[in-house]
């Protein structure tokens, strides 16, 4: 099996090393694991691509490359430059330092990398490690992902739903904020929503007198609706959420047609 891996925390991030271990386990001794990851951290870039400027790419080691771009850029670079059109069997993105549950999905470069792979017609999985008080006490905060990641990916490859639609299914996996022994199992969960927890800005004045704005995040340990991704994560479960890049609100289409469309002549 040939696997392409990327992330949004950067080429030297510890979570990427965890993902490489998982990928090598899945690929097997005769497989190939190719890494194309951002040269610098790209957290929060979502599905951004560097459409208006070029990016430099550098070979760091055998099958290991750094690109000055987003995770989606890295997937494109891997498919059309590094691998020279030899398509991988699977694309893995992560393991992100921090959760990509609930509304974080919309901002996540980790999810963006997997989304681009799905748009290219490839099986793809994004993986993230929820952080919290329990993980901060561990010598390896990625312990849950490291211990359980291979099993979850294999379970998805063997028993997941992999369609061939225009907006192909891909998967978002979040490991709970606890040690590996405390993981209670796996739950298939929809994307949740943290009410009253929003991104914002915090102004600061530099020594030169100029105003700069820092983006601030909302509370990450607020539970979402029961059974949704962040809720099951905080309850000790690995969440698996099927996603598509199609953002159409399909549940409103018929009602909106009745309100807006004129009857056919």
Automatic annotation (TrEMBL):
Protein name, per record: 5'-nucleotidase SurE
Presence of the UniProt keyword Repeat in the record: no
GO molecular function: 3'-nucleotidase activity
Needed cofactors: a divalent metal cation
Record note on cofactor: Binds 1 divalent metal cation per subunit.
Taxonomic lineage: Bacteria, Pseudomonadati, Pseudomonadota, Alphaproteobacteria, Rhodobacterales
Keyword Nucleotide-binding on entry: yes
Function (record text): Nucleotidase that shows phosphatase activity on nucleoside 5'-monophosphates.
Residues annotated as domain Survival protein SurE-like phosphatase/nucleotidase: 3-195
Domain of life: Bacteria
């Amino acid at each position: 099996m040939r696997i392409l891996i990327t992330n949004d925390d950067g080429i030297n991030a510890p979570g990427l090393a965890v993902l490489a271990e998982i990928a090598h386990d899945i690929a097997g001794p005769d497989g190939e694991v190719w890494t194309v990851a951002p040269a610098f951290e790209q957290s929060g870039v979502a599905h951004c691509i560097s459409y208006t400027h070029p990016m430099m790419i550098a070979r760091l080691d055998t099958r290991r490359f750094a690109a000055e771009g987003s995770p989606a850029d890295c997937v494109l670079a891997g498919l059309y430059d590094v691998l020279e059109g030899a398509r991988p069997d699977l694309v893995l993105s992560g393991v992100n330092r921090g959760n990509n549950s609930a509304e974080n999905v919309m901002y996540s470069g980790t999810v963006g990398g997997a989304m681009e792979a799905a748009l290219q017609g490839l099986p793809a999985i994004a993986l993230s490690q929820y952080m919290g008080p329990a993980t901060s006490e561990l010598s390896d905060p990625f312990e849950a992902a490291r211990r359980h990641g291979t099993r979850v990916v294999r379970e998805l490859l063997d028993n997941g739903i992999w369609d061939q639609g225009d907006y192909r299914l891909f998967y978002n996996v979040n490991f709970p904020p606890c040690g590996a022994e405390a993981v209670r199992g796996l739950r298939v969960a929809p994307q949740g929503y943290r009410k009253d927890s929003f991104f914002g800005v915090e102004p600061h004045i530099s020594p030169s007198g100029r105003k700069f704005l820092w983006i601030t995040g909302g509370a990450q340990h607020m539970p979402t609706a029961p059974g949704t991704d962040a809720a099951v994560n905080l309850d000790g479960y690995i969440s698996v959420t099927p996603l598509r890049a199609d953002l159409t609100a399909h549940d409103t289409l018929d009602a909106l047609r009745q309100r807006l469309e004129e009857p056919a002549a």
